[in-house]
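Input (structure):
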């Protein structure tokens, strides 16, 4: 399999809202262009960072349509299409394929703890709705409540469209296990990108990448060039920034969107309830994060 279109830094795309809290097509397009100009490999649209579980099916279509209007043919686009029922997921999968995405992805169904054969059927039914498009399993057990296992992965790899795993579990050993079964793997936890790449991940998909893409692009470049100490230093700095992003009252993505705006990126609005918006005491944290990001880029990139 030719994996080149998946090799690199793929930011998880943020939800973009107007002042009234509705999807902003303009902001979606602005953010897409902004990230293309930063040199990212691709975009992961409609996942956790895109607040997918708080958006309706039609809203998610609008987001992807506007991303693809700017990105098609320029970068790789992976569309997360899972809903908590099969029919809506299939509708989003078919829609994504009609727009020409490179791959679709799906978490397992949440809330009810389904047996592995039911999860496999759910994923395969979604994949069947986009029969000409790669399918990627999204393994994020800490949020979905379900962990991918080797037997379940083996079952899914019988589907020729299933190519790999976006792995957001914390053990890097999981990356090695999925690779041994023949899957390509994307590193999920931003705090361990260089660890995931060292374990054989083809690239990374991350929720903080869009706030500081230069740092992650540079980190991967230094690791691949054999400059381990510099890559470690860059990873450590990214982790310090992430910890600071998570230290406020507002949700991390509310903090990130304000960082993005202050650093010359588009205004993506706030976050959708029940996620917490920024409060006054969060703004000094935003200021610190902006300063830390700019200092790290100046030092390392």
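Output (sequence):
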């Amino acid at each position: 399999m030719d994996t080149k279109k998946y090799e690199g830094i793929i930011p998880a795309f943020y939800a973009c809202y107007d002042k009234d809290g509705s999807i902003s097509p303009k902001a979606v397009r602005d953010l897409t262009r902004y990230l293309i100009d930063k040199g990212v490999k691709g975009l992961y649209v409609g996942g956790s960072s895109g607040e997918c579980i708080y958006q309706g099916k039609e809203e998610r279509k609008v987001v992807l349509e506007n991303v693809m209007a700017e990105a098609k043919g320029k970068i790789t686009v992976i569309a997360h299409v899972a809903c908590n029922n099969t029919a809506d997921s299939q509708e989003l999968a078919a829609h994504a394929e009609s727009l020409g995405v490179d791959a679709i992805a799906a978490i397992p169904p949440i809330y009810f703890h389904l047996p592995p054969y039911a999860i496999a059927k759910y994923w395969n039914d979604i994949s069947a709705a986009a029969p000409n498009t790669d399918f990627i399993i999204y393994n994020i057990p800490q949020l979905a409540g379900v962990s991918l296992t080797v037997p379940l992965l083996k079952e899914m790899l019988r589907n020729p469209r299933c190519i790999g795993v976006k792995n957001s579990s914390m053990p890097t050993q999981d990356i090695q296990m999925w690779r041994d079964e023949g899957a390509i793997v994307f590193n999920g936890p931003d705090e361990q990108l260089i660890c995931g790449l060292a374990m054989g991940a083809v690239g990374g998909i991350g929720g903080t990448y869009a706030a500081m893409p230069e740092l992650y692009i540079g980190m991967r470049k230094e690791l691949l060039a054999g400059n381990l100490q510099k890559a470690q230093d860059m990873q450590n700095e990214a982790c310090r920034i992430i910890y600071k992003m998570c230290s406020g009252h507002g949700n991390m993505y509310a903090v990130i969107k304000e960082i993005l705006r202050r650093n010359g990126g588009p205004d993506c609005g706030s976050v959708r309830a029940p996620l917490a918006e920024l409060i006054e005491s969060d703004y000094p944290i935003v200021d610190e994060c902006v300063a830390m990001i700019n200092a790290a880029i100046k030092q390392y990139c």
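Notes: The chain has one domain: 4-300. Residues 4-300 form a domain with the TIM Barrel fold (CATH 3.20.20.70).
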